Amino acid sequence: MSDLVQLTKDKDVAIISINNPPVNAIGPAVSEGISQAIKEITQDESVKAAVIIGAGRTFVAGADIKEFGRITSGKTARGPGLLPLLRQIEDCSKPVVMAIHGTAFGGGLELAMSGHYRVGAPGAQVGQPEVKLGIIPGAAGTQRLPRLAGVAKAVEMCAQGNPISAQEALDSGILDQLIEGDLLSGAVAFARAVLEKPVPKTRERNQRLGTLEQNAPIFAAAREVARQKQRGMIAPLAAIDAVEAATRLPFDEGCEVEKKLFNDCLFSEQSKALIHVFFGEREVAKIPDIPKETPIIPVNSVAVVGAGTMGGGIAMVFANAGIPVLLKDADPPALDRGMEVIRKNYSSSVKRGRFTQQFVDERLRLITPVLRYDDFDRVDLVVEAVFEGMQLKKEIFGELDRVCRPGAILASNTSTLSIDEIASATARPEAVIGTHFFSPANVMRLLEIVRGKNSSKEVIATCMQLSRKLGKVGVLVGNCRGFVGNRMFGPYRREAQFLVEEGASIEAVDQALYDFGMAMGPLATGDLAGLDVGWRIRKEFRHLEKAGTRQPFAEDRLCEMGRYGQKTGAGWYKYDESRHAISDPELADSLRKWSAEAGIPQRKISPEEIVDRCILALVNEGARILEEGIALRAGDIDIIYLNGYGFPPYRGGPMWYADTVGLNKVRDHISEFHRQHGELWGPAPLLRQLAQEGKTFAEYHRSQNMTAA
Ligand code: 3HC
Ligand code: NAI
Asked: Distance between CA 421 and CA 463 in Å, rounded?
């Protein structure tokens, strides 16, 4: 038997333990080990029943995702997968009880459903998350789940991919019993109690499959939800088709339908992109020069300076994680306003059912509004979120240096300013770091952690770990203007404006990028964030613009007219009371007039060109960022764009998208834009180099560590 599976006995009950850390992913060796164990217990007359359990922290968390890449790249042939093993277990004449703790996901739940009974620890979760990887369950999950849980639950779980709790699994018929206390002994006792009973085969349990009339509205509703909530994704619709097959066809034929749909999905670009995202999200936590053993500074209390838009949201993030926070502002009315916004946000979360009133009351008790630095000597971390201005930030950091205890982390939420210059206002630059939250801070998952040239490894490791505790995806970035996300967003939004100035309509620009999969078009995004933010930054940095290079003018004009976006009721669009966007024909006329005055010829612009101009602008800047070491890996840039900028996950992020287009093609396209539109489009040297070598961004590894300056 393989080392990954152990067979032991508790008198007449065999115990099959799967031991493939960290998550007991099931690949060919595990599968072979279980199969061998089932054969042995079938022949062993002293065994009357079996329990299958996961060793360590979980039951099986799924098939081994790394295998998929090997199959699609042709390195491994796709065999029959888990299907024969699951049938072997189901056909075993002795009852097999699946004992579930941790997460029985994907192939793990499929394995569990092949057993005759399932028991679970109260904290366990089960799910078919395959759609999140761009595939569907591939080991009869779409066929067995509706037989256990009913059609509606199965469709929801397979199409949306979200896990359910042990209690829900019990209520829906997936689990037969919850086991309080020791899972293994409970499962063994359960096995003994069913020894004499017939062994129920899930594949033969057709009672919950419903009728055509009952199921039609379930599938129609599920397809509608998928089209809206998982816009552009193929796997959720395929998953629904597969569950539908379970309700219309005998089990084996249903499995054939599932197999075909699974293969179509597995070989799709979407699945490759989403698997890249899965591993990319885990890789961001790995910093080459900061080993795992780096000491972590305990963060048990924090302070936030500035109770405005960001400060208030950041205070909520800490409170939500159970960490007490002092929220300081210099201006009493601003502090009152900040607290009021926090209360309003919490109460709307209660109304929407996201939090209970009790949870919110507890969180609010963790936030203490203050006007002075009195208790700052007791906090472990301070996040500064005052107005964006170097002079002010330096004053604050000078003050923090005086009042905070040695060893405390001093972080800035600046979105454009140099962390090193801010750190120079203190006598402890090693304690200074950037923590760039995105707006609204309590909602957005992304956190850019900005490494200053002196930021200590302990401080970096602590912030990276803390980001996870806060429910954020922390990505380490280097110190430059705009860091990674906003630096790339500049050229992207610049091109959106250029396109409008060249004759595309505002709606056409937004629609093309929405259809590409972006959560919102670039102009509507500007209206949401506030056009005045970029305007102020542009004015401050105008002296850095190279004379003679084309600069967009449209947003500056809008701001001069007081059209800052949603907050002033008008920007690129007009907004009604409920902030619904309305096209503005007068603005369209003004744009044509301004363009004529600027001598910009007007032309018809295709949606393809709109997408290329905007997305390749992201890619070209991303390539520079990568080469400069501002991002550690192309995948890190992708994770930033997926979590902070509404880039469609099924395209894997801008750098992955460029790899799928082919860097040769991308370079040629950018070179063409360079000829047509001038200097701003010079192809990034790294892009040229990789295209020349026939390589991808994903293959690029810098020889040195991240630059910190
Ligand atoms: N295959 C291969 N590696 C996996 C894996 C899997 N199914 N699940 C997790 N891992 C790896 C991670 O990459 C990570 O590796 P690293 O330490 O080298 O970075 C390690 O296991 C630990 O994972 P996490 O950091 O994510 O640990 P958490 O405790 O935070 O989360 C988890 C655990 C909830 C199980 C989470 O890892 C997860 O959601 N995994 C994916 C589950 C999944 O999608 N299963 C379905 C797979 S597809 C399938 O089963 C097809 C079938 O229908 C045929
Ligand atoms: P804001 O204008 O909403 O709030 C700033 C707050 O700081 C105000 O309440 C003000 O009274 C307070 N303040 C000013 N001087 C102070 C002092 N000396 N001591 C204590 N409080 C003081 O600003 P916003 O939008 O929250 O931005 C804060 C920081 O976050 C800026 O650095 C900004 O660049 C950055 N940021 C902003 C984002 C956004 O979308 N608004 C996104 C990411 C970062």
From this structure: 20
DSSP states of 297-366 as a string? Answer: -----EEEE--SHHHHHHHHHHHHTT--EEEE-SSHHHHHHHHHHHHHHHHHHHHTTSS-HHHHHHHHHH
Residue nearest to atom 4 of ligand 2 (CA): 308
Mutate to test the pocket of ligand 1, among 18, 23, 30, 83 (most ligand atoms within 8 A of CB): 23
Q: Which of 651, 635, 697, 632 lies closest to 282 in space, CA to CA?
A: 635
Centroid of chain to Cα 620: 23
Residue 541 binned pLDDT confidence (cut-offs 50, 70, 90)? confident
Mutate to test the pocket of ligand 2, among 316, 328, 329, 438 (most ligand atoms within 8 A of CB): 329
Predicted local confidence at residue 542, as pLDDT: 79
CA–CA distance, 559 with 553 (Å, rounded to integer):
10
The per-residue pLDDT for 430 is 98
542 lines ligand 2 (CB under 6 A): no
Given the CA of residue 331, which atom of ligand 2 is nearest to it?
11
Distance between CA atoms of residues 161 and 383, nearest Å: 35
Q: What is the 306 CA–ligand 2 centroid distance (Å)?
A: 6
| Two structure tokens written together for 365 | 């008790």
Give the chain's mean pLDDT.
96
Phi-psi region of 198 (alpha: psi -120 to 50; beta: other; left: phi over 0): beta
Ligand nearest to the CA of 79: 1
Closest atom of ligand 2 to CA, residue 412: 32
Ligand 2 site, residue 160, Cβ cutoff 6 A: no
Q: What is the residue-wise DSSP string for 45-64?
A: TT--EEEEEESTT-S---B-
* Angle separating helix axes 65-72 and 269-283, nearest 10 degrees: 140
Active-site positions read 110, 130
The DSSP annotation for 75-137 comes to SS----TTHHHHHHHHT-SS-EEEEE-SEEETHHHHHHHHSSEEEE-TT-EEE-GGGGGT---
Ligand 1 cavity residues, CB under 6 Å: 22-23, 25, 61-66, 82, 103, 105-107, 110, 129-130, 133, 137-139, 141, 282
Taking alpha carbons only, the member of 219, 113, 112, 83 closest to residue 159 is 219
User: What is the spatial distance between Cα 125 and Cα 59, in angstroms, rounded to a whole number?
Assistant: 10
Structure tokens at 451: 């490494």
pLDDT attached to residue 708:
45
What pLDDT does residue 545 have?
80
- The CATH fold of domain 302-477: Rossmann fold (3.40.50)
Give the N- to C-terminal CA distance of the chain in Å, as an integer: 54
Ligand closest in space to the Cα of 338? 2
pLDDT of residue 142: 98
Quick one: average pLDDT of 547-571?
Answer: 93
Give percent of the chain with pLDDT exceeding 90. 93
Q: Is 505 in the pocket of ligand 2 (CB under 6 A)?
A: no
555 CB within 6 A, ligand 2: no
Indicate the pTM of the whole model: 0.95
Same fold, 5-267 and 302-477: no
- Minimal-distance CA residue to ligand 2 atom 15: 386
DSSP calls for 393-436: HHHHHHHHHHHSPTT-EEEE--SSS-HHHHHTTSS-GGGEEEEE
Residue spans per domain, the chain: 5-267, 302-477, 491-559+587-699
Beta strand 125-127 pairing with 581-582: unpaired
CATH node for 491-559+587-699: 1.10.1040.50
Whose alpha carbon is nearest atom 32 of ligand 1? 61
Q: What is the CATH number of domain 5-267?
A: 3.90.226.10
Asked whether the predicted pLDDT for residue 597 surpasses 60, the reply is yes
Q: What is the pLDDT of residues 328-357, one digit of tens each?
A: 999 999 999 999 999 999 999 999 999 999
Cβ(414) – ligand 2 distance below 6 Å: yes
